[in-house]
Design goal:
Number of strands: 4
Strand content: 25-35%
Protein name: AsnC family protein
Shape: globular
Organism: Streptoalloteichus hindustanus
Pfam families: AsnC_trans_reg
Helix content: 25-40%
Structural class: alpha+beta
InterPro entries: Dimeric_a/b-barrel, Tscrpt_reg_AsnC/Lrp_C
CATH topology: Alpha-Beta Plaits
Order of helices and strands: EHEEHEH
Number of domains: 1
């Protein structure tokens, strides 16, 4: 699976509707409104690079209110949850 983070510039008066429309697109797992350099951040998960190439310019960029996107492909995940799950394999909570 290909994981990507899409930074989205959106029209300020359309952020809620734009975010919901993006969240409803297949392949988009989460959308966050945020403060800072971008208005929305979408987390995307697709099977192939070609799917990502079609999803961002073909679907996300065409949502009304989207002014521009910047896509970052994730190579590896580093999280406490992943680390704890790895070391918990085979352990029982039989106390």
């Amino acid at each position: 699976m290909i994981n990507a983070i899409v930074l989205i510039h959106a029209a300020a008066d359309r952020i809620p509707e734009t975010a919901q429309a993006i969240a409803d697109i297949e392949g988009v797992t989460e959308v966050y409104s945020c403060a800072g350099d971008v208005d929305l951040i979408a987390l995307v998960r697709v099977a192939e690079h070609e799917d990502l190439a079609a999803l961002v310019p073909g679907r996300i960029s065409k949502v009304p209110g989207v002014l521009g996107t910047d896509t970052h492909i994730a190579f590896r995940s580093y999280s406490r949850r992943d680390t704890e799950a790895t070391f918990a394999i085979g352990l029982d909570d039989a106390d």
